Amino acid sequence: MILAHISDLHIGQERNDGGARALRRARETVDRLNRIDGEVDAVLVTGDLADHGLPEEYATVRELLATLRFPVLVCPGNHDDRTAYLAELLQEPHEDGPVNRVHRLAGYTIAMCDSSIPRRDEGFLDDDTLTWLDKVLAETEDPALVCFHHPPVELRVPFIDGIMLQEPGRLADVLHGHDNVRAVLCGHAHTGATTTFAGAPWWWRPAWSPLWCSPSRAMT
Known about the structure:
With 220 residues, the chain is of the alpha/beta class. The chain has seven helices and nine strands, in the order βαβαβαββαβααβββα. One of its GO terms (molecular function) is hydrolase activity.
């Protein structure tokens, strides 16, 4: 299976310099993805699709992602608003609680988990989400990917480490119970690196929006 992993679009309603840059970079990235020589099974977007969680921002995101020639799988981040995310981006009815989705393609199971906490910057996978994830992983022998927004390990950058996934050991306990987890994928840090978590490769991707910290500082 071939995937493209991107994160942290931060598409905002403002058309000031920062908002214009984010939208321009997003369009450039979509254009580059569409010019890939060959097929991509899916594009994964691990959160912060909108900058302020506003309906009009999700309308822009939806129009932008619709121009990709590949399937797009998404999960929310701390800048996303669940109500507007569901209504405007996914165009689905309102539901209470985390917005978790599972997708099966190319022989893989892909769990897109909601680690957001409304009106908070740090992340948390609540009991309902972990129970759901445990069930998703138990129901298949297919290789699985687990995707969410907040990194579950420290990056050694105080600002980011203060708003990482809280109580990551709860997630590790779930993942250790399944030998079909092939990777964990995140965003949030606006930089890229790789390590392992709960015995699985773990990748987090740079943002489309501005870089907060140098990759050389994030991992040593």
